[in-house]
Amino acid sequence: MRAMTTTIPAGPWTVDDLDALPEGTGVRYELIDGALLVSAEPSLQHQRVNGRLLRLLQDAAPAEIEVFLPIDVRLSPVRQVAPDISVVRRSDATGRRLAGVPLLVVEVQSPSTRAVELTLKRQVLEEAGVPSYWLVEPDDLVLTALELVDGRYEQVAQVHGDEAFDARRPFPVRVVPAQLSR
Q: What is the domain count for the chain?
């Protein structure tokens, strides 16, 4: 078997550089202001919670809305994220990448990504105008919901375990964190 060789640019990175990286490597690449972020494969609990939340959102979504596992969300030539879950208008889901800004981004947190998701990614999504951003802690089963109010994210809910969050945006759905692990 031949090893694959890839030349990695020193940076700053662009979204075109990401397009040249090999696919199917088991890592997720994101780009924020020219800096490359690389995330390892998630844990089983992360995947369990992510999969159940995906199914819940897909079942509740109206026909004009689609719910995706990680897809490239290109926000600018130097900003591209790949959230755990993206909720988008069906009309924006064309081609290889999303054509518009997601209605909701969900990140199921891992110890290695938590700090980035709470600060840097939050700021990037806020600046891009993503209306809703949910953070899910898979081990403690906590969901924190943020919504854009006057251009800034405000926490609208934080539910633990068997507590319910009755989301109104981007569509009505009830989320009970403990049910995401069963």
A: 1
Statement: the pTM of the whole predicted model exceeds 0.70: yes
Q: What is the reported pLDDT for 180? A: 96
Residue 24 located in a structural domain: no
CATH code at position 141 = 3.90.1570.10
Residue 12: strand, helix, or coil? coil
Beta strands 173-175 and 79-81, pairing class: unpaired
How far, rounded to the nearest angstrom, does the alpha carbon of residue 101 sit from its chain's CA centroid? 12
Write down the residue that tokens 């075109």 correspond to. 16
Q: Taking all residues of the chain, what is their mean pLDDT, rounded to a whole number?
A: 87
**Which residues face 167 on adjacent strands?**
173
DSSP E strands, the chain: 28-32, 35-39, 65-68, 73-76, 79-81, 85-89, 104-108, 132-137, 142-149, 152-160, 165-167, 173-175
The answer to whether residue 121 scores a pLDDT higher than 50 is yes
Rounded Cα–Cα distance for residues 152 and 8 (Å): 35
What is the arithmetic mean of pLDDT over 165-181? Answer: 97
